[in-house]
Each structure stands twice: as structure tokens, then as C-alpha cells.
Amino acid sequence: MYCYSKFTLAPSATIGGGTVGGGVYELLTRRISSPLACIKKICVRDLQKTRDFTVDPTCTLTDSLDDVLNDETLNCIVEVMGGTGIAKDVVLRALSSGKHVVTANKALIAEHLGEIQKAIGEAEGSPSFAYEAAVCGAIPIINTLQSCYSGDNITSVMGICNGTTNFMLCKMEDGADYGEVLKEAQDLGFAEADPTADVEGHDVRAKISILAKLAYGVTVPITSIPTTGISSITSVDFEYAKSMNCTIKLIGTAARTSEHGEHDGPLTVYVAPKMVPTSHVMGGVGGAGNAVAVTSANMGLAAYTGPGAGRYPTANSIVADVMRIANGNQGPAFPKTASLKLSTDYESSFYIRISISDGLGIIKSVGACAESSGVSISQILQNAINDREAVDFCVTTEIALLSQVKMFVEELKKLSFVKKEVMFMPIMEE
Amino acid sequence: MYCYSKFTLAPSATIGGGTVGGGVYELLTRRISSPLACIKKICVRDLQKTRDFTVDPTCTLTDSLDDVLNDETLNCIVEVMGGTGIAKDVVLRALSSGKHVVTANKALIAEHLGEIQKAIGEAEGSPSFAYEAAVCGAIPIINTLQSCYSGDNITSVMGICNGTTNFMLCKMEDGADYGEVLKEAQDLGFAEADPTADVEGHDVRAKISILAKLAYGVTVPITSIPTTGISSITSVDFEYAKSMNCTIKLIGTAARTSEHGEHDGPLTVYVAPKMVPTSHVMGGVGGAGNAVAVTSANMGLAAYTGPGAGRYPTANSIVADVMRIANGNQGPAFPKTASLKLSTDYESSFYIRISISDGLGIIKSVGACAESSGVSISQILQNAINDREAVDFCVTTEIALLSQVKMFVEELKKLSFVKKEVMFMPIMEE
Ligand SMILES: NC(=O)c1ccc[n+]([C@@H]2O[C@H](COP(=O)([O-])OP(=O)(O)OC[C@H]3O[C@@H](n4cnc5c(N)ncnc54)[C@H](OP(=O)(O)O)[C@@H]3O)[C@@H](O)[C@H]2O)c1
Ligand SMILES: NC(=O)c1ccc[n+]([C@@H]2O[C@H](COP(=O)([O-])OP(=O)(O)OC[C@H]3O[C@@H](n4cnc5c(N)ncnc54)[C@H](OP(=O)(O)O)[C@@H]3O)[C@@H](O)[C@H]2O)c1
């Protein structure tokens, strides 16, 4: 077992020599070349594959995990292979043999947080577990939440933390349609061949569960996080967004609801596209950019923006983690532990888009549905009508619970003139 | 001499019990109440003054600096008295007796960096010196620059780091005039009775010198930093800004110039109002908000925004520093040391506003002045002319050196039809 001490020499190995692993090797070797941190071994799947970076003779390329994990001269393992199967074994084995672990693997952390925490242990000699790169690539949000809010009470954390979907939504705002822009994202290498994890919000879900753990000390099982992706958003929604001075962003949210006072209620964690005011810092995040907005008692709103992925942004965060470990300044991985009631019934004002065949008495019926669901309507907007048989309009609500809005939508669907799916999404406050 | 070890108990004292000091005491006592960090003494100037926070019986209020500095049971001093005289002695005495120091005092750090560094020392048992609150209140930019860019090359750091002037510029953008808005800022308690430090950019200068030290490892004497404030900006500049899709912000900049390649030249550090595209994250910073944008090789553009001052935002950063020290995770105060050539001749594209009596051949003469100064003109804009004797227009340039633009301006002033002061400012890139 390695003993944690300040200014440890940190001979390291990466498991993975792909996009991120290659970047980590390059930065540590070419840019830092500190005796405190050097990569001694790189483990890959296929030794024959041509690498897009040069491996120095002082570093061994291997395809044997055991060759790395059983090497007692290594005290820091950088896991950049991805996945939640073998990667999990790698991380748990490394930690339980006292090696520090640095990883970019959000899926692994989100799915196996409890086991990872157990493997880290709590004693003073415990190895470090660092994962700045796992959420929002280059944005130092993990470190910031770990150490800058120790005397604060966080009321909400909201993240645009998937570059692919942000890229797609920006293009859709400019008029492109969903299928078209998905193909473009795939051609550009942003989106995977199977884009489900991105467009259905699963990637954001993993990330917001990690941010929720840091902000509130609560482990939220990812399967309990209500998650809506971007696939049902259409150009009509962007038209309404525009008339509301908003844009649409896929947002992971972790927020305290207000029960008896302000933000004293259960914690709600969810993923959904949101109407975001263009004047809000989150509304200005373009392309594949990422951003996290944290609202707290002491600080009000603070926002951190930057690139969310890519070889060097991601490797940069890993290298910063490795150097903090080498310098003995890496704090505990999950400094907060708390028990907070969880609720899936989040509160927000909402946007609801309704397709109808135009007629008389519609507003009155919609109003009645709202009333019986306990929802207060704030605004009703209707864009220019081209075809009286396929009209849409949108309703915005005052702050309401998700359950109330769902009931409202169910009531709406019973109305004879309401057509197709009713689409709704929360609206972010200014 | 205290020996630095992980998880030190940190009995602390604050020197100062005003806006920030009171906030620090409240947060550490009411919100954290960790055995690791508690305030045992608060030193103030006037013991008779009524405090706006309650001091527990476990804490002593004193007006004797010696009572605090000679107390060997205290190992962390929070300097929140301000000023660069007594405060300097306090900080140096505390450090040289091995006490950790936390401060919010940007003026002190900027003016006496060398002496402070000497007092900290470099040995492993050296005390910590933490100053997150000194630049941009609640935004964790000090920590981020200290530990998140270790494997990166920073090309520029730009900060909106004075809330008062940002508030004033936002109001001026909405049509208010300089004198009017200065009075409003004073009435609201943003601006001091003597607003010089804010409006002439001295406060920003202190802060950008600290950010430059962190980003580049170079100590830049504040007297060598070209500094322009906001007092010569008029509503006309905001009109031109609008037609350029820009706004005007007071920006502290530290950037590498490009000599032989990209960003390989001398370091330039300066303070000036800038034309900032409204689409840039810095263009969206409203009210008394602060923001720092860092551009680097690995990360591209990352930006950090939040409140820049006020009791709790500032105290929050101090408390985070104290807790990092108590937990043994505070890294070195100034991790980078480098020698880089400095230059006051910064490069940028520029906006130049010229007042003239209208006539013929003006553009041709202006073009000749530009050519002889080596400046390429990019655009010429003229707002509606009301009075032919008092016409203004603006010229924007391609990337040029400050010295070239100054020469251009001197040439312009020689022209018979050019009136009054010629006003110029850099334009921030998209
Ligand atoms: N790419 C990004 O921008 C980004 C951003 C943030 C986080 N991440 C995370 O970083 C991790 C790595 O991503 P990546 O883009 O670098 O992936 P990648 O390019 O596919 O690289 C994966 C690497 O792991 C190696 N590997 C896979 N299975 C292995 C096994 N069983 N034994 C040994 N080596 C194995 C592969 O070896 P071969 O090269 O021989 O196939 C490859 O070198 C993932 O968790 C991802 O979520 C990536
Ligand atoms: N206020 C902000 O928003 C803010 C933001 C960022 C940084 N800062 C920095 O924080 C520092 C403090 O600012 P502040 O706003 O808290 O100032 P403040 O409200 O004027 O408080 C200063 C405190 O220091 C005490 N003091 C002054 N001289 C003293 C002496 N010779 N011996 C003992 N105590 C002395 C004063 O005692 P009495 O109360 O008895 O007069 C007072 O409690 C400054 O360096 C400032 O630049 C402030």
C-alpha cells in the first residue's frame, strides 16, 4: 500500500492510448516533463495499431492489464479506456492496491459511485481518485465544486454538458432539421454511429448525477433521474423560443425545491431540454461548448464555460489531476456526504406546445384543464396560422410541479381538437 | 514555526471585522462550524463600534495587532483590513512567524509581490498564502490558474474585474451619461467617494498583474502597466459600439504577442476599455458582475463569471481558502516562475473615434496618416450628422501595435479639420 505524502513522485501508467490517452501522454511528456509525473506504461487493446503520437523509449506499450496493475513501481493509474465493464475492474483493483486513479469515465463513476467510494477508503493514507475530465472536459467544475463551496449552500447546479447535442440544437436554431443535423454531427465525428447516449440525454444524466453528488453530497441512482432528450424538438419550438427571447438547450439540473421556504425542500435531479433566455449566460453557449451554472446562497450565480470534449481539453484536465496528486494537493474525491430527500417531481415554469385543429372555445377549454390540474397559465402564444387544420400554439405556465404539468397535458389530450403529442419543457429563470 | 501537515487544526484570527471580516466570521461560525477551522480572535480598529454580526463568547474582539500576531496558538491569519501600509506588516510578520495567511487585499499583493514571496519561503514546511478573494471576489480564478493549467500554455487572460466600472458602463450603454452614473454608483455604495482607483483602472491593474503572475509566472511591476480608465468614454462611443454589434467593457489583459509565430512574443499587460462583441461571453456580463476569459493551447477559450465583490461572495472565497489550508490541500501561492520579455506595446485591432469639422478630402487624409503609421484601416463608420461643425466618425483597424496606433493618432491630430481629443481603444476578437 502506497502511503500518501506531499510531493510524491508519481510514476504513472495510462490504460488506454486513444484520443484522450494519447493527449495525456503528449502533454505530460512534451509540455510538462516534470520528474514528479511521468508515464512509464501505456496499456492498449491492440499493440499493432498505429498510434497518432510518438512513444518514447522510456515508456512501454503493453496490452496486458496485469502488467500495469501488478506493477508496484507505478502509483498512479490513468484510466482512459472507457466503458463500465473492464474499466470498473481496473479502477477498483488499482484503488484497492493503493494506487491513485485519474479517470475521464463519467459513465463508470455515475453507475458505480458507491463501490468506488468504498475502494478509495477514508483513512489518511488513502489513494486519491480524481476525475476532473469526466464532466465538461476542460471546465474545472469538479475541483471548483470540491473546494470552492465549502462554506456555501448551493441551490441549483445546471449544466450544458454534452457538446454533441448543443451543437445540434445550435444548428436547429439556425433552421436545420433534426435528422439533417444529426447526420452532420456524425459526419464531423461529434456524434457516435449510435447517438442514443447523447440525444436521449443519458450522457448528461451521468454527468449531472456526479455534479449532484459534489454539490449536495447525495448519491442519486441514475435510473431514478427523469431524462428527456432532444429528439422531439422541432423547428416550431425554436420559433416560439425566439418570440420568447429564448433558445433551447439540453440541461442537466440538480436543484433544491422550495417546500416551506426558499430551496429547503427535496433535491430534484433531472435532464430535459429547456427554454433558456438568450440573455442568460447558458443561452450564449454555442457549438460544442459546455457550461455549468451554479447558484448559491453566498455567490448568487456563477458560471463556468469552455470546451466539453476533444483530445487536449480532456487531457488537460487529466494532467492537472495528475499534477495535483504528484504535488500532494488533491483533496477528497467526494468531500460532502449528506442525506437529503429526493424527489422526481421538480418545479419550474413550463412551455407547452399544443397542436390543434383550429376552432372556437379552445382557450376556454385549455384554461379549464389548467385549472383542474392546479397550473397557472402565464402566457399563450400563437405563431402565424398557415393551415387551419394544423395549428399550434404554446402555453407558458407559472412555477408548477412536473406532476401538475403532466396532469394538465393528460387533460389536454382528452380534448377533441388537440392533435398528436403534446410537447412540454421547463423554462429557465432569467 | 508551525509545521505544515495534512489536516491541521487551524485556529485562526481575522484582522478586520468589517464588510468582509464579518462575513468570514459568520460563514465559518454559522455555516461550517468545523473543528478544523475556527476564529479565535477578531482584530478591529475601534472596539466601541457596533458590529453587524454577533461575536460568540469563544471569540475575542481585540484592537491590538500584537495580541493576534504574537499569539502562538493561532496558525492562520485572515487579513481583511485593507490598505498597503499596516496590512503589509501584518502579512509579512504573520508569514515569517510561520502562520498561514489568507487575504482579500489585491493592492497589497500587486504592490509587494516580491517581498510576500520571500516571506512565504519555498521549503516544504512553509506557510500557505491564499488570496482567492483578492481578484474577482467569488470567482475561483486564482485556484483555477494555480492548478488547472499546469500542462497548458496560456495565450491570454482577460478580466472584467471591477464591478463598479462594469455597472457604470452598463448604465451608459442604456443611455445614462458618465457623471450621472458615477453619482448613482456612489449613492448605491458601489463607488467610493474618491472613485479614482475604480474609474481610472488602478484596481483592475492590480488584479491583472496578479493574474499575469499566475498565468505566466512573471512579476509585472504595476507602474509599468499601461492603464486607461473609462472617463473619456461618451455616448457616441456606445452608438458606434452598437453599430459594430459590440459593447464597451473595462478589461485587464495579459497576453503573449505574436513575434515569429503565434503567441511566442513578449508578454503585454494592460488595462483599457475595449470594444467587446455582444456575442462574446465577456460582452454579456451585466451590472456589477465580473468575468475572466482564459485562452490557452489545450482548452481554447474558457470563461468564468460571477459576482466580483460584496460581503458573502468575498467571504466565501476566503472561507474556501481557510478550509483548503485546514485540510492540507492548499498548493503553492505562485506555482509558476518564468522569465518572459515584457512589452508595453500591445497588439490588437483598434477603434478610433475622430471629431472633425466636415469637409472634403477627409478620408483621403486619414488614409494617408494610417499608411504612414503602418496601420491598415478595416472599416470607417459615421453616424448620422446633425451639426456639420461637430461631426464624428470612427475608424477600425486591422491588428496593429499600440505604438503604430499612437503614431496614427498623432498624425491625425496634425490635420486641420480634426478637433479635440482623438479617442481610441482596442477591439476584442470574437
Ligand atoms: N474523447 C473525448 O473527447 C472525451 C471527453 C471526455 C471524456 N472522455 C472519456 O475518456 C475515455 C476514453 O475516451 P477516448 O475518446 O480516448 O476513447 P478511444 O479513443 O476509443 O480510446 C480508448 C483506448 O482504450 C484502449 N482499450 C480499450 N479497451 C481496452 C482493453 N480491454 N485493454 C486495454 N486497452 C483498451 C484502446 O486501445 P486501442 O487503441 O488498441 O484500441 C484505446 O487506446 C472514455 O471514458 C470517454 O468517455 C472522452
Ligand atoms: N468589500 C468587498 O466587497 C471586497 C471585495 C474584495 C476584496 N475586498 C478587500 O477586502 C479588504 C477589506 O475590505 P472591507 O470591505 O471588509 O473593508 P471595511 O469594511 O472597511 O473593513 C476593514 C476592517 O479593518 C479594520 N481595521 C482597519 N484598520 C485597522 C487597524 N489598523 N487595526 C485593526 N483593524 C483595522 C476595521 O476596523 P473598524 O471596523 O473598527 O473600523 C474594519 O473592521 C480590503 O483589502 C478590500 O480591498 C473587499
TrEMBL record, chains A, B:
Keywords: Amino-acid biosynthesis, Methionine biosynthesis, NADP, Oxidoreductase, Threonine biosynthesis. GO terms for biological process: methionine biosynthetic process; threonine biosynthetic process. This is Homoserine dehydrogenase. The lineage of its organism: Eukaryota, Sar, Stramenopiles, Ochrophyta, Bolidophyceae. Residues 16-118 form the Aspartate/homoserine dehydrogenase NAD-binding domain. It catalyses: L-homoserine + NADP(+) = L-aspartate 4-semialdehyde + NADPH + H(+). Gene3D superfamilies: 3.30.70.260, Dihydrodipicolinate Reductase, domain 2, NAD(P)-binding Rossmann-like Domain. Pathway: Amino-acid biosynthesis; L-methionine biosynthesis via de novo pathway; L-homoserine from L-aspartate: step 3/3; Amino-acid biosynthesis; L-threonine biosynthesis; L-threonine from L-aspartate: step 3/5. PANTHER family: HOMOSERINE DEHYDROGENASE. One of its GO terms (molecular function) is homoserine dehydrogenase activity. Pfam families: Homoserine_dh, NAD_binding_3.
